[in-house]
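Exam revision sheet. Question 4 asks you to relate a sequence to its structure. Input first:
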Amino acid sequence: MEAFLAVGTFGGFRRAAEALRVTQPAVSARIKALEESLGVPLFERGRGGPALSAAGRALRPHAEQLLQAVALARQAVHDLRPQSAGALQIAAALSICTYLLPDVLKRFQAAHPNVMITVRSGHSKEVLEMVLRGGAEIGLARSLHHPAVETVSLRDDPLILVGRARDWPPSARRVRLEAVADRPLVLFDRGSSDWTLSHGLFRRAGLVPNVVMEVETIETAKRMVERGVGIAFLPHLAVAREIRRRTLVAIEIVDAEPLSRSLDVIHPRQRPLSAEALALLRALRIAVGEVGGVPGRRRR
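Answer key, structure tokens:
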């Protein structure tokens, strides 16, 4: 189940293997064994990498629940240990799980080795539901507000239009939206707020974008842009490293408003944060400060 969720999250067997710290053949063997036991293919293999099949999409929430049950069982045993400093449940959007949390949690665990950490991922609305139900003490999402939670904005994380550097010389990186609509566009995660924002930009201008591919994950969309399949609106957090390395470039749309988003921490108003959650919040502030962005501000 871990291999199944990792392939679905990272959009490929190689990256899933890296995340799980096993070999790619080991991941492939686990997926094959799972598919054989269920009698159905869980992924559709295509040009954009493996995408969840209908059976895979049906299995995913149950797989997440199974792993959550395992984590809770481990936590229950861990809490009995005398050295235990507590437990911390986190809910986070997939992009944050992929591009921010690994480094933050590595640093946090080094400073708090006795804290048992559980991370669950989902869309922003799912993150909110987990926090409201008490399944997570804090949530990490983008531009998320609700009267029952307090929102702390850590930094701006806008959706930016990116293309492969060699396809976009410096003189061509300022364009009008009409010209963008004619270019091949890669979209990700149909129905998500990011997908809606990207589509809405063209719809408000009375334009129909030239969508050549829709994929499930941000990471797959980024890989398609790197291979010259098209351009894409992606979170800054997901492409900051590639822009620094100049493999991807940001393309400015001169006649459209930026697609503003923020990287937020949410927690219930009526429950004070534990010492572990406060320590993680400090680690998050340090991490986003290192990668730049607008200083955090507390919103009600």
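Marking note for examiners. The longest helix spans residues 54-78.
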